[in-house]
Model the fold of this input.
Amino acid sequence: MTTAPDVAPPRDMLGQTVVVFGGSSGIGLETARLARAHGADVVLTARNADRLEAAAKEVGARDVAAFDVTDLARLEQFFDDLPGPIDHIMVTGSGPYYSPLATMDFDQARRDVDNRILLTLAVARYGSPKMRPPGTLLFIGGTGGRRAGVGFTLIGALTSAIPALVRNLAVELAPIRANVIAAGFVDTPLSASLLGDQLDARRAELRATLPIGRVVGPEDIAALAVHLMTNTALTGATYDIDGGQQLV
Done:
């Protein structure tokens, strides 16, 4: 029996530039890889310079910048220094902060708010003037904070806030588009670092319970991200991708 040959992605992003914050691994790296396969140039940023350089070589990135994206002055400088127009910006996120109120670290809580709310605003403010319509600002959110429970107070509030924020950005920045990808568990190096020796058990649990019968990977998120970049009718919306996790 013969197998059908792999079908190459369409080159529908030729001449476009995609900036990926958090592009050295996981969702960001897979999105950069797929955008390159569709013909786009990519610019990667991340904190770790060594991992960033390795990722850039792997996908053939046009340029890299190693810095902490939560340093808003440095973020503004990055966009000021960026040559030429860009078409799409993707911002991946750090892990969520779960904590009951009684033991919540308010410094950590403040950092989480800054990393999600203020960072979203800053990327939109500093990045959108560099963008060509109908490009999209694309932010990675989550679905885990939608259920109520002890320890979910902060992440629940932020899970609700980001889609509302981005809906308004889609109106204010039009014809630049703005969208959110709300992911469930994704099998990435970040997930591995958060779960440690519980990772394999979590994978097995998801394979047994998710309607899709497998664990969502970064390539799944990348496929949705590139679709949102190339489908210019999509703006101001939040797109869930969790393998049916919320259903079970």
Remarks:
- The mean pLDDT is 94.
- Residues 17-185+217-241 form a domain with the Rossmann fold fold (CATH 3.40.50.720).
- The helical segments are 26-37, 49-59, 72-81, 106-127, 153-172, 189-195, 199-209, 218-230.
